[in-house]
Amino acid sequence: MSPSNGVPFLDLVSPHRELEDELAGAVMSILRSAAFVGGSAVERFEEEYAAFCGVPHCVGVGSGTDALRFALTATGVGDGDVVVTVPNTFAATVEAIIQVGATPRFVDADPETFNMSSVALAQYLTEECDRTVNGLIDRRTQRPVRSIVPVHLYGQMCDMNAIMALAEEYGLRVVEDACQAHGSAYMSREGFWKRAGAVSAAAAFSFYPGKNLGACGEAGAVTTSDEKVAARARMLRDHGQSRKYHHQIVGYNGRLDGIQAAVLRVKLAHLERWNTARREAARRYDAWFTETDHVRVIAEPAWSRGVYHLYVVCVPYRNQLQDSLSDSGIGTGLHYPVPLHLQEAYAHLGYREGDFPVAEDQARKLLSLPMYPQLRAEQQERVAQAILDFFSKQSVRESAFFEMRTRP
Ligand SMILES: *Cc1c(COP(=O)(O)O)cnc(C)c1O
Q1: In whole angstroms, what is the distance from residue 39 CA to residue 42 CA?
Q2: Is the CB–ligand 1 distance for residue 65 below 6 Å?
Q3: Angle at 367 between CA 364 and CA 370, to 5 degrees
Q4: Do 56 and 49 touch, CB atoms closer than 8 A?
């Protein structure tokens, strides 16, 4: 098949071409004011992104990983604490936990949504921890459990009603990893839609170029309803100072660039429309895959409104299918092929294969299909048709193999 007939996994060129004049104007205004680090574009963006999430405070930082580190430290996580998260996430979630001095402990994913299982979380809190006068103690490490980091994977929100209820019951704080969830919402116990970043003590967003809201380089943000957490995050991003050369805490160089903030302001105005286009594209894929038993799509519960940062399916013969799609010029991705508890870098945490069966099974079967606002229905048809063709040939091969083996 000719490359012109192919479908790329990502398209980071079209959205920038669409907004070229506006983006160039925004960058030019920063060049003219020389507000390269901090400044009014950063402040405006922080106000606008806070409003988008429905939360009073947003602190612009250097990356999503910075945002995770600052959100954890600013909410009181530190040396010797335990933080509960999932093994099926991007490495930055666990990096940040370790870099603030804490120990990550994992709970498995839910088999339908692939997000943190509230059942597994409840099981961990009751069966692997002891309730003491000093709070909840993780039995394996003998360390206090401080926080939960649910990851809104692929842009679908975790079951926050259940997770927040468990956090309340056990006196834990929650920090959302919302790096893939710009605009995702869930139906809260209070009976209204609440957006990612507005639920927990603090949330971390990434504006890495490929995210639903992406900068033209590295950028991130912490959102919070707590003024003290916001003030602490502001100090942490700026060498621990709240006044120039007066350092109250040990901080980082983790500020948001003026040019990135200016770019993000232009793109934020289109995020709602882009997220809607992603949802529509997801429904078109869903419709194609209801016809086959080979392709399992990730469940979106009625209480969830996801923004499809990724559209992920679970399939048998995953690697063969990925190769076959690649031969047809169709780009795909794996998010993520090796769960974090089985990574060399985290071997010291002492987990082994078999500890998280859902995450491990998912890692073998998942495949991310092309997904972006500019994806056209006919491109999706090509992707879906190529997948359905693969399985119709595969099942012919399987039945031939089956006949061969069962023939007397
Ligand atoms: C992208 C991402 C991060 C890290 O964000 P950066 O901006 O690349 O530092 C963290 N967690 C998850 C789940 C992500 O997808």
Answers
A1: 6
A2: yes
A3: 170
A4: no
Q: Average pLDDT for residues 212-239, to the nearest whole number?
A: 98
Q: What is the DSSP letter of 5?
A: G
Indicate whether 97 pLDDT > 60.
Answer: yes
Alpha helices in 76-226 (DSSP H): 91-99, 118-127, 160-170
Alpha carbon distance 251, 233 (integer Å): 9
CA of 175 relative to ligand 1 center, distance in Å: 14
pLDDT: is 33 or 399 the higher one? 33
Query: Could you give the 3-state DSSP secondary structure of residue 309?
Result: coil
The mean pLDDT value of the chain amounts to: 95
What long-range pairs does 342-348 form, CB within 8 A, spacing at least 24?
Answer: 342/87, 343/91, 345/91, 346/94, 346/104
Residue 138 CA to its chain's centroid (Å): 26
Q: Which tokens hold the place of 4?
A: 């012109």
Least confident of 43-57, 138-152, 162-176, 390-404: 390-404
pTM: 0.96
For residue 220, the CA-to-ligand 1 centroid distance in Å is: 9
> Does the pLDDT of residue 400 top 70, yes or no?
no
Output the six-digit token pair for 177. Answer: 């990893």
How many CB atoms within 10 Å of residue 119? 13
Q: Which of 66, 94, 180 to mutate to test the pocket of ligand 1 (most atoms within 8 A of CB)?
A: 180
Interval 333-379: pLDDT, tens: 999 999 999 999 999 999 999 999 999 999 999 999 999 999 999 99
| Residues 364-377 pLDDT 10s | 999 999 999 999 99
Q: How many CB atoms lie within 10 A of CB 348?
A: 9
Strand partners, 175: 202
Distance CA 162, CA 116 (A): 11
CA–CA dist 391, 387 (Å, integer): 6
As separate numbers, helices (DSSP H) first and strands (DSSP E) second, the chain gives: 12, 17
* Cβ of 118 less than 6 Å from ligand 1: no
Q: How many CB atoms lie within 10 A of CB 113?
A: 20
**Does the structure show a pLDDT above 70 at 404?**
no
Residue 59 dihedral angles phi and psi, to the nearest 5°: -120, 115
Q: Is 368 in the pocket of ligand 1 (CB under 6 A)?
A: no
